[in-house]
Specification:
Radius of gyration: 25 Å
Pfam families: Aldedh
Protein name: Aldehyde dehydrogenase
Number of strands: 18
Organism: Amphibacillus indicireducens
Family: Belongs to the aldehyde dehydrogenase family.
CATH architecture of the largest domain: 3-Layer(aba) Sandwich
Distance between the termini: 56 Å
Strand content: 15-25%
InterPro entries: Ald_DH/histidinol_DH, Ald_DH_C, Ald_DH_CS_CYS, Ald_DH_CS_GLU, Ald_DH_N, Aldehyde_DH_dom, Aldehyde_DH_NAD(P)
Helix content: 40-55%
Number of domains: 2
Length: about 450
């Protein structure tokens, strides 16, 4: 019997449905993560050279916070919700039941290999499902540790981990899971969606794309520079919601870039390639791809590399041609192309002609300009006068639109993602209206009076 059959049997036994079981599972998960926290910090350092601070804040701490938030609210979320019933249905009661899908498949990426495996798992457990996690083979130390943590905590019939490369993903995608949650590239997302369509499996796709940032002339420039630098170069730019390219108003370009380079020095030192806490590129393939982008435009700042350690220092490029590969492909690394504009509509028009981004960031102190970009640009989510921070709140759904993905999660939105809204009408048996039936006298006349 394969893992999917076993998980479906486990699910249909009903054991995963009660609130107490879900609560216990989430508490066990948190306790197991805490017991392995030091191992996780070392694993993240091994695979991505993440500092303890970055690893905890972006990978581990955010998972603790998510579990705590879900535990605080889960009982309320699980309760059936009573909704209104129309006059035509008098005597009946209408309710919406959050119903688990069943056996779920979670395919997670390498850039935040722990957090992006655990956060959807929290939603699957909270929703009453079983789960198979397929972590990335590009971060093997973390993936092996995920398997160790999960096997210590749960039976495989409930939560399991499948290790391997593309062939393992293909094997799992050929199985008729009840739900698929995928985080990764647009190209692989299309394959996952095609596979899901063969079994008509509901799916969430958390993809990427080129997330723009605009710095308008009325922005608080020094603070904007620091926040863009932090958002861009966290995890060496290997973040799906990192600013991919930047538009800055021509009147403040020189001043902004001066502040920006100062911010890089403050965050990573004068020689980031020698900073032991600065992240590395995940593998040689991505390192060489990123190194090729350094030929685009004109080098304004940075550009140094260390091939042995797969490090590319924070880099700024100017005078970039909009047709260069760096402007047509997702960068996913510590290189920021900077473009200028004289009128805000120029930047808006350029962004609207591209695939819809996962995130968008706008720096301006004027409410009118803020409202303008929010109304005219379609994107998954983002910030005004900040970067990345929208990911840190469980009250906001996280997800893309168009080529940047479909569906959302985090907090209650994770619970909603992993549950079907089952509509139930409980009808009275104490009386029966004859006009509902085709042989009733004056049925049409009565129906018109009630239904018009």
């Amino acid at each position: 019997m394969d893992i999917l059959e076993r998980q479906k049997d486990y699910f249909y036994s009903g054991i995963t449905r009660p609130y107490q079981y879900r609560k216990k599972a989430l508490n066990l998960l948190k306790a197991s993560i805490k017991a392995n926290e030091e191992k996780l910090l070392k694993a993240l350092q091994t695979d991505l050279n993440k500092s303890d601070f970055e690893a905890f804040t972006t990978e581990i701490g955010i998972v603790y916070a998510e579990i705590d938030f879900v535990l605080k609210n889960l009982k309320k979320w699980m309760k059936p919700k009573r909704v209104k019933t129309p006059l035509t249905h008098i005597g009946s009661v209408s309710k919406i039941y959050p119903d688990p899908y069943g056996a779920s498949l979670i395919i997670s990426p390498w850039n935040y290999p722990f957090q992006l495996a655990m956060t959807p798992l929290i939603g699957a457990i909270a929703g009453g499902n079983t789960a198979v996690i397929k972590p990335s083979e590009l971060t093997p130390t973390v993936s092996n540790l995920i398997k160790e943590i999960i096997s210590q905590t749960f039976v495989e019939d409930y939560v399991a981990v499948g290790l391997g490369g593309a062939e393992k993903s293909q094997e799992l995608l050929n199985m008729p899971f009840d739900y698929i949650f995928f985080t990764g590239s647009v190209a692989v997302g299309k394959i996952v969606m095609e596979k899901a369509s063969q079994h008509l499996i509901p799916i969430t796709l958390e993809l990427g794309g080129k997330s723009p940032v605009i710095v308008h002339e009325d922005a608080s420039l020094k603070l904007a520079a620091k926040r863009v630098a932090w958002g861009k170069f966290t995890n060496s730019g290997q973040t799906c919601v990192a600013p991919d390219y930047l538009f800055v108003h021509e009147n403040v370009k020189a001043q902004f870039l001066n502040y920006f380079t100062e911010a890089i020095n403050q965050l990573y030192g004068d020689h980031p390639v020698n900073n032991p806490n600065y992240g590395k590129i995940v593998n040689d393939k991505h390192f060489h791809r990123l190194r090729g982008y350094l030929k685009s435009g004109k080098l304004y700042y940075g550009g140094k590399v260390n091939p042995d350690k797969r490090i590319i220092e924070p880099t700024v490029l100017v005078d970039v041609d909009q047709n260069d590969p760096i402007m047509t492909e997702e960068i996913f690394g510590p290189i920021l192309p900077v473009l200028t504009y004289s009128n805000l509509n120029e930047a808006i028009d350029y962004i609207r002609r591209q695939p819809k981004p996962l995130s968008f960031y706008f720096f301006s102190e004027t409410a009118h300009y803020q409202d303008t970009v929010l109304e005219q640009i379609s994107f998954g989510g983002g910030c005004i006068n900040d970067t990345l921070y929208h990911l840190g709140t469980p009250h906001l759904p996280f997800g893309g639109v168009g080529e940047s993905g479909m569906g959302s999660y985090r907090g209650k939105h994770s619970f909603d993602t992993f549950t079907h809204k089952k509509s139930i009408l409980k009808q009275s048996s104490r009386f029966d209206f004859p006009f509902r039936y085709p042989n009733s006298k004056n049925g049409l006349e009565r129906a018109r009076k009630i239904m018009k």
